[in-house]
Amino acid sequence: xxxxxxxxxxxxxxxxxxxxxxxxxxxxxxxxxxxxxxxxxxxxxxxxxxxxxxxxxxxxxxxxxxxxxxxxxxxxxxxxxxxxxxxxxxxxxxxxxxxxxxxxxxxxxxxxxxxxxxxxxxxxxxxxxxxxxxxxxxxxxxxxxxxxxxxxxx
Length: 154
Prior knowledge:
Blueprint: H1 3-15, E1 20-25, E2 31-35, E3 54-56, H2 67-77, H3 82-88, H4 94-105, H5 108-129
Antiparallel strand pairs: 1-2, 1-3
Helix pairs in contact: 1-5
């Protein structure tokens, strides 16, 4: 499957972990999208729960890419502000305040780059553990979960 398609599915699931799901076919690499709040163009296959055929795409919390990643970044890149970052993540709305702090410190782009690299590494490791073959390249339907990716082999 294309990495960009997996990344889009990961972002879909991470955007609303309690409402959105995505499943990868172990056989074809096709992604099936679902949401409890948005009506999508296609329905999930009847055997979507069969772990030998489909695997659920993880979200950022499943891959430990949430608060812990931000704290690791702060420890590595903002040692003088680590405690401030730790305090930010003790309250609701932490990511907005965290990004405001990064912008004030002039390292918001460094965070985005760090997060992107960590996300790619974690998704590739997850894919390898699940037996998925992930390749570089632009995916066919990466940005639009309403498109049935079953019709387009990856």
